[in-house]
Amino acid sequence: xxxxxxxxxxxxxxxxxxxxxxxxxxxxxxxxxxxxxxxxxxxxxxxxxxxxxxxxxxxxxxxxxxxxxxxxxxxxxxxxxxxxxxxxxxxxxxxxxxxxxxxxxxxxxxxxxxxxxxxxxxxxxxxxxxxxxxxxxxxxxxxxxxxxxxxxxxxxxxxxxxxxxxxxxxxxxxx
Length: 175
Ligand SMILES: [Zn+2]
Known about the structure:
Elements: H1 3-24, H2 34-49, H3 58-76, H4 80-91, H5 107-125, H6 133-143, H7 145-161
Helix pairs in contact: 1-2, 1-7, 2-7, 3-4, 4-5, 5-7
Bound molecules: zinc ion.
Zinc ion (ZN) binds at residues 51-52, 103, 158, 162, 174-175.
């Protein structure tokens, strides 16, 4: 699947998730606002494009330009923890060959957990009140629930369109 196809697929999943969060959020005791839905949409769309950043392309170049600007902004505003996380995410696609780990079936589940863990450890270091792992684990599931759903949803949309999911493989082309 090419980049345009992934944008289209990612937008559909992201829109469906963002809308569901607004409509059904209250059912699960979480009040999702428009801002939350925008966050859910952005993260889902981002992760639906993320796997193909492992190959040199025009989207990849724009991605690194955006990261470059974002890192300067985060540095300037003193958001060092977020800046570290963004830098880690930005580097990871190019650590492996094209269609390497970013197109692995388990990455969409494992990587978002890993990112939350890294982010949380950075936060916990500065917060002596909440330094027990058990508390932290509960906190992932409640505070980061939206992230742990949005990121894999977008990512699996990408793998689905690339036909990387074995039982759905119908020989669709990929980048
Ligand atoms: Zn791909």
